[in-house]
Write a structure and sequence with these properties.
With 169 residues, the protein is α/β, with parallel strands linked by helices. It has one domain. 30% of the residues lie in helices and 21% in strands. A seven-stranded mixed sheet has the order 3-1-2-4-5-6-7. Helix 1 crosses helix 2 and helix 2 runs parallel beside helix 4. The radius of gyration is 15 Å and the shape is globular. The model has no long low-confidence stretch (mean pLDDT 92). InterPro entries: Aldolase_TIM (IPR013785), NrdG (IPR012837), Organic_radical-activating (IPR034457), Radical_activat_CS (IPR001989), rSAM (IPR007197), rSAM_sf (IPR058240). It holds the Pfam family Fer4_12. GO terms for molecular function: 4 iron, 4 sulfur cluster binding; [formate-C-acetyltransferase]-activating enzyme activity; metal ion binding; ribonucleoside-diphosphate reductase activity, thioredoxin disulfide as acceptor. Belongs to the organic radical-activating enzymes family.
């Protein structure tokens, strides 16, 4: 079960193109100035089964998908099957995270690496209020990066998955 705050359709601010956005519950970063502090508490979310969440996403057939939060990597193991289904539908997947790419790779948590490898793009880094810049596309502060998940990055994540002794779930 995935804890979800909301699913919205037809967003143009959460990644390129028209997107369905899944706002997940739970975030360990507690960024000062966060635009959605209610997302920090995982108990604020409603439980969705994989099937329920995939159905909610597929209502807008032409939309690509964004996982936002909270921090989707807080529920990486629960989101991996949903992300796989999103990719099977031929949709692009953007994922927002307060972790940096380097932190995700260093943590070597299998479910996080699998989720990372399933993404087409991640927007990484915590929101930093002092670096707020509303002119930036698809992010809120200058420290945050838009990173395409290329074949090279996918290969690196796969190699780290092999090294990791952690179970997927």
């Amino acid at each position: 079960m995935v804890k979800v705050l909301s699913v919205i359709h037809d967003s143009i601010v959460d990644g390129e193109g028209l997107r369905t956005v899944v706002f997940t519950a739970g975030c360990p970063h507690f960024c000062p100035g966060c635009h959605n502090p209610s997302s920090w508490n995982i108990n604020n979310g409603k439980e969705y089964s994989e099937e329920e969440l995939v159905h909610a996403i597929s209502v807008s057939e032409s939309n690509d998908v964004t996982f936002s939060g909270g921090d989707p990597f807080f529920q990486a193991a629960e989101l991996v099957p949903v992300a796989r289904r999103v990719k099977e539908m031929g949709k692009s997947l953007w994922i927002y995270t307060g972790y940096t790419l380097e932190q995700l790779l260093e943590r070597m948590i299998k479910s996080e690496l699998i989720l990372l490898a399933l993404a087409d793009t991640i927007v990484d880094g915590p929101y930093i209020e002092a670096e707020r810049d509303l002119t930036l596309p698809f992010r809120g502060s200058r420290n945050q990066r838009i990173i395409p998940v290329t074949g090279e990055l996918r290969s690196r994540a796969a190699a780290l998955m092999e090294e990791s002794s952690q179970p997927i779930c």
